[in-house]
């Protein structure tokens, strides 16, 4: 168990989230983040989630609400670069994981299958970043 936890910690520290995945505020503003690879949640959002769960109504009475519904146009536009940054962070993290798979000599066919794409699509999408990692190592 100890070694498994250490492995997860090493992976997470290699590419820690730079912002809260929920409020999209940067780590410099939020302080510590609790997270897993490529996602994190700040203390303020964690506390809000606890309050939400403590005061929640039965699921059948709730209507899903998109996060942008509460924002005016300026606020919505202000969030777009943060969402794009989150997308880029996730893509970079995925490339790191694919690189780890290739370092273990896992085939492009297996990688593609796990991602729901063909071997060729996986190779076209990731081979350059994997090759760049090999050169920098």
TrEMBL record:
<dbReference type="InterPro" id="IPR059188">
    <property type="entry name" value="Znf_CLPX-like"/>
</dbReference>
<dbReference type="GO" id="GO:0008270">
    <property type="term" value="F:zinc ion binding"/>
</dbReference>
<dbReference type="InterPro" id="IPR038366">
    <property type="entry name" value="Znf_CppX_C4_sf"/>
</dbReference>
<dbReference type="InterPro" id="IPR010603">
    <property type="entry name" value="Znf_CppX_C4"/>
</dbReference>
<keyword id="KW-0143">Chaperone</keyword>
<feature type="binding site">
    <location>
        <position position="42"/>
    </location>
    <ligand>
        <name>Zn(2+)</name>
    </ligand>
</feature>
<feature type="binding site">
    <location>
        <position position="20"/>
    </location>
    <ligand>
        <name>Zn(2+)</name>
    </ligand>
</feature>
<protein>
    <recommendedName>
        <fullName>ClpX-type ZB domain-containing protein</fullName>
    </recommendedName>
</protein>
<keyword id="KW-0479">Metal-binding</keyword>
<comment type="similarity">
    <text>Belongs to the ClpX chaperone family.</text>
</comment>
<dbReference type="GO" id="GO:0006457">
    <property type="term" value="P:protein folding"/>
</dbReference>
<keyword id="KW-0862">Zinc</keyword>
<dbReference type="Pfam" id="PF06689">
    <property type="entry name" value="zf-C4_ClpX"/>
</dbReference>
<dbReference type="GO" id="GO:0051082">
    <property type="term" value="F:unfolded protein binding"/>
</dbReference>
<feature type="binding site">
    <location>
        <position position="23"/>
    </location>
    <ligand>
        <name>Zn(2+)</name>
    </ligand>
</feature>
<feature type="domain" description="ClpX-type ZB">
    <location>
        <begin position="1"/>
        <end position="61"/>
    </location>
</feature>
<dbReference type="GO" id="GO:0046983">
    <property type="term" value="F:protein dimerization activity"/>
</dbReference>
<feature type="binding site">
    <location>
        <position position="45"/>
    </location>
    <ligand>
        <name>Zn(2+)</name>
    </ligand>
</feature>
């Amino acid at each position: 168990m100890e070694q498994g936890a250490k492995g997860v910690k090493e992976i997470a520290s290699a590419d820690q989230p730079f912002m809260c995945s929920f409020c999209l505020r940067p780590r410099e503003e939020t302080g510590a983040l609790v997270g897993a690879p490529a996602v994190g949640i700040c203390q303020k959002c964690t506390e809000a989630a606890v309050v939400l769960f403590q005061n929640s109504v039965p699921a059948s009475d709730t209507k899903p609400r998109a996060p942008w519904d509460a924002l005016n146009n300026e606020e919505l536009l202000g969030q777009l670069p943060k969402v794009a940054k989150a997308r880029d962070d996730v893509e970079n993290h995925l490339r790191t994981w694919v690189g780890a798979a290739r370092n273990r000599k896992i085939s492009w066919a297996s990688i593609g299958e796990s991602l729901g794409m063909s071997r060729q699509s996986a190779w076209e999408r990731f081979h350059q970043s994997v090759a760049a990692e090999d050169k920098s190592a």
